[in-house]
Design goal:
By secondary structure, this protein is of the alpha/beta class. 27% of the residues lie in helices and 22% in strands. It has helices at 17-20, 26-39, 99-107, 122-126, 138-141, 161-177, 201-214, 232-238, 252-265, 299-312, 327-333, 336-339, 388-392, and strands spanning 12-15, 47-50, 111-117, 120-121, 142-147, 154-157, 181-185, 219-222, 241-243, 274-276, 284-285, 293-294, 316-318, 346-353, 357-364, 370-376, 382-387, 407-409, 415-416, 422-427, 432-437. It has an 8-stranded parallel β-sheet with strand order 10-9-8-7-3-2-1-13. A 6-stranded antiparallel β-sheet has the order 14-15-16-21-18-19, covered by helices on one side. It has a 3-stranded antiparallel β-sheet with strand order 4-6-5.
Length: 438
Amino acid sequence: MNKNGFATRPPMGWNSYDYYDTNVTEKDVLANAEYMAKNLKQYGWEYIVVDIQWYAYNTATMRDRFQYIPFGKNEMDEYGRLLPCLDKFPSSANGAGFKPLADKIHDMGLKFGIHIMRGIPRSAAEKHLPILGSDVTADMVADPSSICGWNPDMYGVRDCEAGQKYYDSILELYASWGVDYIKCDDICNTNLYRERQYSARHEIEMLHKAIVKCGRPIVLSLSPGPALIEEAWHYEKYANMWRITDDFWDNWDTLNYMFDRCEKWQNHVSCGCYPDCDMLPLGKVGKHFGAERDCLFTREEQKTMMSLWCIFGSPLMLGAEMTQMDDWTVSLLRNEQLLNLLNGDFISKQVYRDKKKCAWCSVNSKTQESYVAIFNLMNETQEVEVSVEECASMYQDGVFPVNCKEAVEIWSNETYDSNANSFKSELPPHGVKLIRRF
């Protein structure tokens, strides 16, 4: 279902986490935004997202002991609402918040997003700060029994009127800054509580209500995963994106696992609602995780990742330091035949999958343009095949076309017989062929 009318295709953008972790600065964000505006915007890339702990001081100074410093100094207003750290975001001084930065990004024709942790700051509860629009203080809505297992900054919010007031207050603030996208963490799967992995259900609903009230079109993205398939209807009703995996990094085992996740979630992709395969760890990553490095995926694996994300219909969030990307990486992000799969009209199906190989197909519900993808999941070269009849059988009423005028492999521009009954190719280890039929 499309709840809001603005997330009509999977969001595409950049997130600071994979390269900068907790330590991204205003200068870094602007440099990446300028790169996107100049080099990728015309291909549909538009979101610039500041990830975790933008409000925290001294981040990454105790990396040998903590990723998130316990009970560190945070920037916060008198109503317990976190503000940008002045050391990292100097334009936020004098109560300006993220508005000056968001304005610059909007002036480039891009959109601005932030990461938040679910809940209310522990320090706000400790100080008994008032909640804007309420006569209740933060300690009365904070739930000390609901915490994040890996980040020490927040308590959960109780399911009560004053708790809703708190969420309303932060969304009112974010809307005044010009925020277009919120990635909320520790909410899609509250995995500290193994018997109650969806214990923050009410906070998802509170966030949704607050976004509606604020009057600004803000995409809501839920993390971390893996999302709970039995709660699919709830994600679809209250969010635009939800992570179907834990943090995704550049090794084959995690990529191979994503074929299973996409199979489980394939029937829950719809306009405005997108199961999220997580960020694309391409190019240069890892600067603040110990050492900057190049993506560890082979080129074949990178093409496989991009092909699976797009034919499945996942949002695309790039994790690279964009200003250091090489031409080959950029070519992955500018492949218009690939990105065409995200235009909102395609219906995709997994045709088959076993431990050795996999095939997907996709058809445009308006034009009958179609795609066929074959994947080699093995560590050695093998032949993989899928028939047009198999693809057509995944749909009703002849939606998937048996015949076409042209068939082109989108990574190599190799042409195929448009009247072929099947597509067969010898694929390298972890390789892919993605054929566009039109």
